[in-house]
Amino acid sequence: MYAKLAEPYALRGWKNLPFAIIKTDNGTINFLEQDGFQVLEFCNGKIDIDAVFFSRKQKQFFCELKDKEIITVSPHPMELSVKQEYRNVDNTYIKAIHWSVTGRCNLKCRHCYMSAPDYRYHDMNTEECFSMIDQFREANVSVISITGGEPFLRKDFFQIVDKILESGIAISQIYTNGILITDDILKECKKRSFNPEFVLSFDGAGQHDWMRGIVGTEEKTIEIIRKLKENEYRVMIESAICRKNIDGLKTTYEILRDLKIDFWKTSLVFEAGKWKENNQGTPLKTEELYEEYLKIVQVYKADQAPMGIQLDGFFACEKGNIEGYGSPYQRYSGDRECENASSCLNCRIHPYLLPDGTFLPCPSMTDSEIEENMPNLLQTTVAEIYRNIENPFFRLASIKLKEVIYANEDCRICDYRYDCGGGCRAMSMFTGNGVMGKADILCTFFKKGYPSQIKSLIYK
To answer: Cα–Cα distance between 103 and 118 in angstroms, integer?
Structure first.
């Protein structure tokens, strides 16, 4: 009997995590112990499995793989595709890259952190984009999310998509304002049998046109959301929150609920890019924001969690699972044992690539004080950055919780220091506290007792 790894599974490894199996159509990764991985190495379609000695544990694992259809069996030899073969790289683990494929946009958003209306970040050509994808593959990146600017402005958009998919890398999400989505674009997606989640922006009932700078955008966005849902795509909506649209937050929630979107994420607008340049008036106070969020939590519970939701880091919940809610601001265990944890693990495993090749720990660090010191992938490679951890990118992405706490006197004496860890590095920078400062928005969350207020709303 011969066994072979089924499509779309592949074997991968990294310097610090040598044994993993990836589902290449969605980027799901499962890390394995060595004895389990040895079983999969024999499943190459060429070795007679009956002649291999497996321990009892390995035999059980083999049966589980077969039951889950991760491997296929046959009385005859089979061929394993090149994409499925074990590829072990000498860089440390990186799971995904959030890639801005263009700095151009068809809207004029007031809050664009990358100043797309001014085309601040120029695009790579097709050949350069292909070289980026080769880099991703060589570093064993398993997932790409595509963003812009507006990605559908690129005439070679589907050439880039094809190259990513041919490289055995999944495309999890496409971030778009939705205005350029047509039936033809959706046909092109279906033709390739890839099913990304579409992430659109909707910045509030009656305010979306103002935020996006083009009259008629709100109506068009709602139309596109309906089209995507009719075509059975997952739809996530992101809403940028400011003083102008905060009063209509409940109405916005109701519109999105009735459109049956899959997930809603809100974020307070940062003083970056066009928003900083245009000086949009008195900023929204943190407590004003949180009081409105409490109202949303209340109606969300009454509606029995009709969609996934994340209100900044204030409140998050999966669809239909209200008692499983969490507060992403409460990022750590609450005791001193977490001191050596990373200040932001996501920075290391899911970084951000700007259109001009600048490689950042996250999108929120665009137009920040650290941007000019970050590496550029037109001059180096992802693998090199993740091999040589003594570089500006990796030093920033590897900041420890204790470093942030000890750098801030307020944090050192705070009872909540092992809950929030000083907060997000980008938040700290854009509120004027510097890269090692504290994010004041989290101070308000904990010191004003919002965790207990949320709990009371959920369980009363």
So the answer is: 9
